Each structure stands twice: as C-alpha cells, then as structure tokens.
Amino acid sequence: MSTNRSSKINILSSVHSVHRPSPSQNALLRGLDAAEFRHLFSKLELVNCLLGDVLYEPGRQLQHAYFPTTSIVSLHYVTESGSSTETVGVGNDGVVGISHFLSDNNFSGSAVIQTSGYAYRLDRHSFKAEFHRSDVMRRLLLLYTQSLATQIFQTAACNRHHSIEQQLCRWLLCTLDRSSSTELKMTQEFLGSILGVRREGITQAAGDLQRAGIISYRRGHISVLDRAKLESHSCECYGVVKTEINRLLRCNC
Q1: Is 199's pLDDT higher than 50?
Q2: pLDDT of residue 1
Q3: Is the per-residue pLDDT at 225 higher than 80?
Q4: Could you tell me what percent of the chain has a pLDDT over 70?
Q5: Strand-strand pairing, 64-68 and 215-218
Q6: Which of 124, 14, 13, 25 has its CA nearest to residue 67?
Q7: What dihedral angle (degrees, nearest 10) is formed by the CA atoms of 128, 6, 2, 125?
Q8: CA-wise closest residue to 44 among 29, 56, 33
Q9: Which residues contact 39 (CB under 8 A, 6 or more apart)?
Q10: Coil, strand or helix at 222
Q11: pLDDT tens digits for 135-183?
C-alpha cells in the first residue's frame, strides 16, 4: 500500500491533562492490576498517530510496541509487486508488535495508521522484558495473540467466500467497535487496498449500502446511519470474531 507519510511519529510530552488520553483506554493496559500498571506507566510514551503514518515497514526491525487508545492501525501483507491486503486491524483492543516476543523483531508486513488518534508506545527491550517478567502481562498478550489468529483466519475465509459488500460490512463493523465515532475518514482507494479488491468493487458495494439507507458516503467519509442493518448485511464472520474476542476477554476476568 502506498503512503506519502514518513514513519516518524510525533512524541507528545506535554498534552494538557484534560485532553491527554489515559493508557487505561487500551484494553490490554486496562487489564493490568494496579501494581503492574504503576510499574509500566513511567516507561510508556504518548504518541500522536496521523492517518497514513507508517509504524513498520516490511523487513525492518521493530523498535517499539504500540498500544492504541484512539488510533486504529491496519496491518498489511505486502507482495513483491507492492500491492497489499489488510490481515487485521488493531485498535484500543490490542497492541501492535507481538513479534517482539514471538520472533526476532522483524516484521514481514506493514503497519499503517488507518484512523488518526493517540497510542502509547513501549521500546522493544522493555516490552520483551515485561513479557518475561510479568505473569499478568504474558497472559494478556498470549490471549490477545490467540484473538489475532482468529481474526486473521476468519478474514482469509471471508475474503475467499463472501461478497465485497459483506466484506465491507464486516470491516466497517470491526472498525466501529474500535472507534468512538460513527463517521470514518476513508478513501475508496484505501478501502480497496484493505480488502484487496478493485476500487470499482468498493464503489458498487458502498453505493448499494447507501441506497439501502445503511451508510452515507461522500468523498473520503463514511457515516454509518443504521448499525442494525449493517450487521444484517454482513456475513457471519463479524459475529464469529466478536464472540471469540469476548470469550478471550472473559478468560482474563
């Protein structure tokens, strides 16, 4: 997927406390007990992530793990020709950078900001050390990794067996779950790269949903008008993934 933004991320050291997002807005950080949270807090850096910012690129060594609070990150597999398809999205439900504790810090895909917002980042050495030191953190990260695997498998099945309209509905629902707004800033080109389909297919699917009164679409913006109808037009993949994620979250209770 092409982007005209560099991989430089704006580190924020002086956000007014009224507007400063809390690390507890991220489900994994919120899952830590008070003692673990206090231990980790001083190591976290707040960063401002803008639409199109590249966190990771193929073959590059990862330097940080990112815990989104209000931003959403799209993880893509990139082919040799440069084309890409989203494998999974990460928002306030998770973390970007599980390869820090699974492998050698190299990432085979790309991680691009899909929705502007904030995230807390942790340097790779501290992240890996916390995984090995803290039983609570390790359990949370392994449960989240399991949920990621479910999402990736389900996305692969969805892309193979379901219509572009169903795929678009699934993706919109997953994005809404990670967003505080019903309006999404998204171009047809970007949606096409996420779903791995031609722009014309996105145009047709979005047009059909708009005519059905489910969404309102204007250049670069999608507003969801009727979530219930959106769910009824989606395939079973959204429900399967949501049920599994909720089950895994309950495992941590």
Answers
A1: yes
A2: 46
A3: yes
A4: 89
A5: unpaired
A6: 25
A7: -10
A8: 29
A9: 134
A10: strand
A11: 999 999 999 999 999 898 988 899 889 999 999 999 999 999 998 888 8
Phi-psi region of 191 (alpha: psi -120 to 50; beta: other; left: phi over 0): alpha
Greatest alpha-carbon pair distance for the chain in Å reads 54
Average predicted confidence (pLDDT) for the chain: 86
pLDDT band (50, 70, 90) for residue 12: low
- DSSP 8-class letter at 25: G
Domain 163-234: give its CATH architecture.
Orthogonal Bundle (1.10)
Q: Is the pLDDT of residue 4 over 60?
A: no
User: DSSP 3-state assignment of 249?
Assistant: helix
Considering the domain 10-133, what is its CATH architecture? Sandwich (2.60)
Question: Is 90 exceeded by the pLDDT of residue 248?
Answer: no
Over 80: is that where the pLDDT of 64 sits? yes
CA distances from 213 to 92, 171, 203 (A): 29, 18, 15
In which residue are the tokens 């297919």 written? 201
Residue with tokens 């502007």: 116
Amino acid 63 reads Q
Cα three-residue angle 232-237-238, rounded to 5 degrees: 60
Boundaries of CATH 2.60.120.10 in the chain? 10-133
What is the location of CATH 1.10.10.10 in the chain?
Answer: 163-234
Sheet containing 64-68: order of strands: 10-12, 45-49, 117-123, 64-68
Can you say whether the dihedral through the CA atoms of 170, 173, 177, 183 is positive or negative? positive
